[in-house]
Design a protein that fits this description.
With 97 residues, the chain is an all-alpha fold. It is built from three helices and no strands. It is elongated and about 70 Å long.
Length: 97
Amino acid sequence: MSDAPDWKPSPKVMGGGVAGAVTTIVLWLVDDLTPLTPPAAVAGAIGVLVTVGVAYLLPGAAAASPVDERPLTDDERQQVSEVVDWFAARPRKKEGN
């Protein structure tokens, strides 16, 4: 089991980001290709509403896997002990320097 964090965004986060970007592009096209020019505050509010709506509708990340609560093996204990000893042997910086 890897302890590395999963940096992949959830579908909810990706959907919200994509919805915000698409809304921005659509509002730019409306402004550029039609005589309509939505005020900046209204365009921002539309972007927020669409982003929140899409993020609300999409599923979140799967629940985190349960914590591995098995006892450490002798090899793992030795590795932990070596790391702790290494940190304890490091010279400490004096405060104020």
